[in-house]
Amino acid sequence: MAAGLRDVMKNGLYSIHVTLLDGRVGKGSGVILFRDGKILGGDAYLYYTGSYTVKDNNTFKGEMLVQRHTSPRGDDNPLFGGPAPVGIGVSGTHTDTRAEMTGTALVGKASLIFGATLHKLADVD
After folding, report:
1. How far is CA 67 from CA 30, 50, 114, in A?
2. What is the pLDDT of residue 5?
3. Is the dihedral angle over the CA atoms 121, 43, 107, 112 positive or is it negative?
4. Could you name the domain of life of the organism this protein comes from (predicted)?
């Protein structure tokens, strides 16, 4: 693939901050690794696995499966943290140090639309 340097999302570990859209209330934060087309990440209750492709004009798209690894405590309510795995489609834009993305999570019969901001924390080979 003969992509220009601007067109390649940098492999790295990113912080991710998610906010629900469409008038719904909810936030979540964690870390997420983008490396050579693979996505891995998680937070206190959930982990994410998936893949992404980089398109022209500094855009990318991907899909993830979110699964719960720890049951919530007290009043904690993970955004996509039901007992069943949740499929998510995402698309966004990126620079060398950050990315913005939107996505749709299919939680049971409901679709949750969200926005997320990613900030690069570390380079990954």
Report:
1. 14, 11, 17
2. 43
3. negative
4. Bacteria
Which residues on adjacent β-strands are paired with residue 19? 27, 115
CB 88 within 8 A of CB 79: no
> 17 forms bridges with which residues in the sheet?
29, 117
Q: Which residues, 6 or more positions from 119, have their beta carbon under 8 angstroms from its beta carbon?
A: 14, 15, 97, 98
Please state, in angstroms and rounded to a whole number, the distance separating the CA atoms of residues 33 and 12.
6
DSSP string, 66-122: EEESS---TT---TT-SSS-EEEEEEEEE-SSEEEEEEEEEETTEEEEEEEEEEEEE
Tens of each residue's pLDDT in the chain, 125 residues: 334 444 467 899 999 999 999 888 888 999 999 999 999 999 999 999 999 999 877 999 999 999 999 988 888 888 876 788 999 999 999 998 999 999 999 888 889 999 999 999 999 98
